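Batch 3, record 17
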Amino acid sequence: MTSERNTDIEIRLLIEAIYLKYSYDFRDYSGASIKRRILHALRQFDCRTVSALQERVLHDPGMFMQLLQYLTIPVSEMFRDPGHFLALREEVVPLLRTWPSLKIWIAGCSTGEEVYSMAILLREEGLLERTIIYATDINPHSLEKAKQGIYSMQNMQGYEENYRKAGGRRDFSEYYTSAYGNAIMDSSLRDNVTFADHSLATDSVFSETQLVSCRNVLIYFNKSLQDRAFGLFHESLCHRGFLVLGSKESVDFSAYSEQFEPLVKPERIFRKS
Amino acid sequence: MTGFDAVVIGASAGGVAALFTVLGSLPQGFAVPVLCVLHLPDDRHSQLAEVLQRKVQRPVLEARDKALIEPGLIYVAGPAYHLSVEQDFSLSLSQEEPVHFSRPAIDFLFTSAADAYRQRLLGVLLTGANEDGARGLAYIKKCGGRTVVQDPQDAQVALMPEAALALHSPDYILTLSGIGQLLGSLETSAC
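Prediction for the assembled complex:
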């Protein structure tokens, strides 16, 4: 019982230390998941207590970078929730066409799967050339992977299936070349992509956008941090811009529920009202 | 028996029928919230809440991210996301790696609920062909809560209850109908 209490105290101290030292703010992340990830890291780093981990993290920035890989969750896939991308294609793209140029923000882009999915969809709809995509994340390693656009060949079959269900019109293999068990994404897909370090917890808006995609990021935030993120999206989006979320995320019950209206509710596509 | 603020239930293979029996036997006016993880295929639309609702008197909802846990309700985890309980007694979803090939994982619900409710939690592990839930149930006990394991002889698949029994000694080893009776008696003394 005492040791469990101690662990909870130590976790709060570690998160505070990370904020003070490295300016990464996990203080308003959902507690249950962050606790599991810290305890998982503890075992990987062979630390007996969270305090021991904190000492190493405070005194060794390299150690913090390693811990950051555990604190963020790089679980992603291309055309994840195909119905979502199908709805984007059918319901949102016709409206996006009405703007002469487009800016799209993919917030929490992780290792880039969402970015390439979006770029492929836009190319097939003839919109990629007039679009700038901002792909942001707090994890520099993830951003680096996203920029490289190299994924395991093993995943491609599943992605191909997602792509087809999402209304894909070509052969998915046209978008990558395979080498040494890897799929290397067509680099022209990211010609108009700017990858940048950005935190929804501490940074502010950097551009006006027509569409913000932030999928399976907000579930890791508590309500107040969710509201902060919704505030940034609302500020960034132009009049009648689009907000697209993960399959279990919604603006309902947030402080911004009145500021957005559902466009395709089951696919979590909202529009600034 | 002392009162509980929540009941958590985990099940896998054979779990739908087992949940029918356990949840179907809850008495009218049973106010303690019940949170369930049943292992599900990883597709997006689960009918579990609707299916259970047909046989259960009280409202059954699929757990929604950030929803506050309310008395009198039964929550079931949807597919493809882990379900946790936060310190403020709200629900949260996450997409960490599967545990024992399972997402939602019973261990994650049990462990996080134990952290939130501590000694005021009752954990119930039912039939299943998987070791998920055993560690979480032992953790509930460690945090001062009470634990129930379905009698492996009564379980459609004994592996899950046996894995739990190998890890800790629960407060009760009961048949499904015994678990229903226990939950009923718990409510009357909790008020």
